[in-house]
Amino acid sequence: MNINKVVLIGRLTSDPESRTIPSGQNVCSFGLATNRTWTNKQTNQKEVKTEFHNIVLWGKLAEIASQYLNKGSLTYIEGRLQTRSWQDQSGVKKYRTEIVGENIQMGPRRTAVAQQASTEIPVIEEPVKEIKDNKDDQEIRVEDIPF
Asked: What is the pTM of this model?
């Protein structure tokens, strides 16, 4: 059994480039950046490594992506790896490995306020039932807190 499956969650590095090939089918391509974060055991410092991926979408997915995605959009992509080759103008053979998207899910839309806020996905925890104010030990009910 063989499996060629890729799952990525990342942000677009540029606006999608959409075009129609001679057969009439839509194709859309864009770059996607993913980050890997870890703590260096020697320095105890947080480190980040960014990988850049070439994404290609066909048909209806291409139409949807070109309409709704833009640079910086958070996107989930499922697809497969595909390497294509061609010869450049000087006759040198070139290769490019791409992810052909078979399923996408768009992340939350970014508003002007959200763009200024942190890009991290917030962690929502169960609210605390009672909060005590240290200054005068006055009780505050969770229901009174405006969210």
From this structure: 0.70
